[in-house]
Amino acid sequence: MTAMLARDIADRRDSLQIRVRGRVQGVGFRPTVWRFAREYRLDGEVLNDGEGVLIRVSGPRGEIERLVERLRGEPPSLAAIEAIELSPFVGRLDEGFRIVESAAGEARTEISPDAGICAACAAEVRDPFSRRYRYPFTNCTHCGPRLTILRGIPYDRASTTMAPYPLCADCAAEYSEPADRRFHAEPIACHACGPKARLVRFDGRAVSYEQHSMLDDVDAAMSLIQKGEIVAIKALGGYQLACDATRAEAVARLRQLKRRDRKPFALMARDMDVIRKYCAVSSEEEQALRSAAAPIVLLDAPGPQYLPESVAPGMSTLGFMLPSTPLHVLLFRRMGRPVVMTSGNLSDEPQVTDDAQAAARLGTIAPFALIHDRDIANRVDDSVVRLTAGKVRVLRRARGHAPASIRLPRGFETAPQILAFGPEMKATFCLVKDGRALLSQHQGDLEDAATFDDYRKNLALFRDLFDHQPQALACDMHPEYVSGKLARERAQAQQLPLVEVQHHHAHIAACLAENGRPLNAPPVLGIALDGLGFGARTDMRGGGIWGGEFLLCDYRRFERLGTFKPVAMPGGAQASREPWRNLYAHLMAEMGWAQFAMNFGELEIFRALAGKPRATLDAIIKGGVNSPPASSCGRLFDAVAAALGICFERQAYEGEAAMRLEAMVCRKTMVEEGDELAYPLAIPNLKGSGLPYVEPVAMWNAILGDLVLRTPVGVMAARFHKGLANVLVAMALKLARRAGETGPRFETVALSGGCFHNRVLLEETTRRLEEKEFEVLTHAEVPAGDGGVALGQAAIAAAHCMDAGTTRQEGGNPCVSVFQDGS
């Protein structure tokens, strides 16, 4: 009887409306629904609208349930379903199942990130019998441009930069056929109707590809690269500059003309066989290289072949990517060597996207350019990832990752719409809407005027794309960040509440949000290590500049439990660029010049520091003039690197000293040498406040002693990393214990800040914390550095607004203006 009743219910005809939310537009979702619905002989229709995909379906209840389960289990490869909601449908549906035109409405759907070329399209462009043979803009619903060509929602051809290209009859037939993988692939095109690629000279003189190749302009461009030329390439999200990575003179010329002294260049290779000539590649790293995101992957580079040192000076890794567009696939068809594929710009400027700007800015670097006539709507840099502690972790979140949303944890469902303006360096911004966080692509350093202009353009773009109307704003509490100044201006002009967030609290909140830590979960110990951030204004136990912090925190508040020793930064921002200044300040803080001269006067670093303007430095440190005390882990890395002879005088780019120090680490020492030789760091208490802090005096004596003994630099670098990981764990253990209470203060530790992009430090710290039975939260999808700060700002602002009674469903009282100060 029960079985018969179940069959009865399953066979009963029903009409339902199915709402699918998430990343479901522009990924082949509607034809997938169409195919499944026809298999189950259901009637109805499917369409895109402002909230995602809407399905209206009629048929046996059991078959409808099978359709829903099939969608959950077998969505298109680029789709990310956030929710499937079912409700009764009372309207009339015609027989059969069809795909109907998109409907307008409030934008609540996700935009798919740009996706690397799929295997089917790659095979087509190589196949002489295919009508898209050597067509550099081939794509389908499983791959191709999305954000880079998008001008509006919904994601239809008319809203993209493909709008000026009417479809030919063949493409129109594919576009209209639900069974075709190009059904409603908005960028669809071919030789007959789509954009064209051309090889040109920036000086306007004529160029003929027949001089260089028997194929076409794309092939001719690689012929020029093979001959040692620098070529500008109009790629998916901006121009690139390319040269043969095996030609030292070409790489040196590119560095000089681009004004990029030592920062590593990204590389592109035709296939995995080429990459393996230079790098060791694990299965996880290969999977990342071949993924739809197609990022730059940092790989260990032990050989067997080697590229010129000028490709990545001082590094033990190389950043490789595979061809991610059909243009690149065709470009590399005859190239069996790596090619430098770096952003098309002068140092620190935003990547060029406009053809006229390319001629003006890049013409002095690259005489030739491979261009095309499809506009780039939105600049998107290449993403960068690295395998660390068993996970592929995003270091720069851009192409292939943005603007995929991050579902906020339990408790944030009613959060109002928030706009977080992010930091100043490695900037991103973040929108909160419908319980999701939309973190922008990497914007760059906002001190550059052109980058700041592009940042403001993208703020307006995301507002329009996602129909975002913020009820509150959030920013860093640093008074001089240009992102914060813009937030304050808009808060005043639009009469919106502003939440000013302490920098390191935002770092930890971003880590909590990424890991799904619920809003009302117990506080964690956040260890935030970076270069610097503005300290809490009302904190009387240090204040100033922070950068090595131990915070007991959740989304709503934090308490500073510990820190690194505050040491002067003589020259202020100049100390961030010149590591020797930090070395001098640290040594003077620990032992003074007389003791240093008496015990270590024979060392090279003594003679180097003796030649500096010590009297001036001593005076500004003593007088507190342009020498702010900073509890910065990043500046400690700089000082140690300078002591070991790495980047003593000047850093050519932000983080160079720390990156080169990590690159020097002797792996044998890390594995085989015991902790007794790791450099010791103590944990006394600051005078007056009693705040526990990391004291490096014993470490400095050990380092200087090893220099006297001529200990290899790789061994010393390993001992420093081990010692630093040890003291982080020791501090966590110390802070977890509360006098007079049996239970620990916290059981979870969250690691964030740019110093945790360091693979050795993250792996050592994580392993040692887990051995002490702490739960450890780390970053993977969101950068640990400043690229993730906007997410933390948004989560903190949302928590405060909800506490103040502001929610997206009910409105409520305005969120109070508040800044986070540790109270």
What features would you describe in this structure?
The chain starts with a helix and ends with a strand. The strands form four sheets. It has a ten-stranded mixed β-sheet with strand order 6-13-7-8-12-9-11-10-14-15, sandwiched between helices. It is an alpha/beta fold and 823 residues long. Strand 2 (43-49) and strand 3 (52-60) form a beta hairpin. It has four domains: 2-99, Alpha-Beta Plaits; 197-384, DHBP synthase; 405-503 and 783-819, Nucleotidyltransferase, domain 5 (2-Layer Sandwich), CATH 3.30.420; 566-742, 2-Layer Sandwich (Nucleotidyltransferase, domain 5). 33% of the residues lie in helices and 19% in strands. Helix 2 (29-39) packs antiparallel against helix 3 (61-73). It has 26 helices and 30 strands. The protein is globular.
